[in-house]
Sequence to fold (477 residues):
Amino acid sequence: MQSAIHVVKSLNDNIDIVYLLDKPENSAKTCTEKEQAYLSSTFDRGEDIAVINQYNRFLFFVNNPKEEISYKRQELYRKKGYEIAKHIQKENIAHVQIAAPALELADILSFTEGFLLSCYQFLKYKSTKKEYALKTLSLFHPLLTKALIQELENIVEGTFLARDLVNEPAIFLSAEQLSQAMVVAGKEAGFHVEVLNKLKIKSLKMGGLLAVNSGSIQPPTFSILEYRPENAVNSKPYMLVGKGVVYDTGGLSLKPTPNSMDMMKSDMAGAAAVTGAMYAIAKNKLPVNVIGLIPATDNRPGGNAITPGDVITIFGGKTVEILNTDAEGRLILADALVYAQKYEPEIVIDLATLTGAAAKAIGKEGMVMMGNAREHWKNALKKAGNSTYERLVEFPLWEEYEKQLESEIADINNLGGSTAGAITAGLFLQHFTDYEWIHLDIAGPAFISSHDNYRGKHATGVGVRLLYNFVKSLSQK
Fold:
């Protein structure tokens, strides 16, 4: 974070203050009679935020939301954090205090999370950089500790790392540069990264990754991210697999540019989410054994690009008939999912911007989930999705859909039929698993074209907070 964050025992009357109120009338403790009347009329109109300019400082008052369901209440506080952050940025305020002495600890943490996530900027390519003025953030709550805030900071940093990677243009972020970014993140956070180059990928016969890469002049990579603390609660690793297509033209099955190819630098958002989650997990020293696998390449129509009608052999031996070169993400994920078998994992979760069908089904509001894992895994992940408001909708993997993947010349085809595209993509992936597995299609929320409160615009970093929350819940059992 650019700003320093402190936990304080008392408030400074000379610095701008944000009050999170348990009851509107409690604002009287800090206001004049006229100011209190103004606040009362503001809240009576149904507005949740009131601002008082005392000339030497601003006072911001946030009313208590009327929401009994815990995870929805926390999301409301995140959104209020966003609204206050916009006020702070508009007024170019450098130092601010947040006080919530009478609220639950979760309330101020969620508010602060939304506030911090709203402070993201991607200014790398701006000649004139207009950075937010905020320098220090002080937090006041009787139960708040520096350790809790440090944990939150690391989660936010992991989310920002994922956003940065997705926002990077393809002219900078090749597969090799993506892998190098993982190496740098690993050194900073405390996890190990091994990068397999093209020669090693060829020796392993990772036919999916090599096929997608065949139209590119840039080599592919396969990165293995390992966090293995001595006090890990699990002997068999939890594994995270991220799709790393750094740019997707569609290959010879070329995409149209408007509202499609123009956003395809984001096709490695799954890889970014895994990287950001590994960063937060390692930085916060969770006692878990976690491994990330990230196959990476761009998908272009040049060179010796694969063509519809080709047959390729995935790592492990299964053959795939290519019916559409734009169904490429599942090919590189297939190699990674087979590779995961060597670790005898306890659970594997893959994240991918895999299908437009998933985005059309539920939009940017959530992720499509499916898999063969037992219900306790799915329930834990859904609970994490609610807690972070990165919500999950489970789609079925009914055997009737398998017919769409049949091929006359290979074991399966890579496209499926004209319906249930998100499901047939998931079914394709299931062919390469022999363990408990969950697939998350994040095509809807990974990269958005209009501003959406604390998620911002363009890269959202979706998946980082979800995975961290999920893994943390496993570490506490």
Remarks:
- The CA atoms of residues 188 and 438 lie 29 Å apart.
- The chain has a mean pLDDT of 96.
- Residues 4-144 form a domain with the Leucine Aminopeptidase, subunit E; domain 1 fold (CATH 3.40.220.10).
- Residues 146-167 form the longest helix (22 residues).
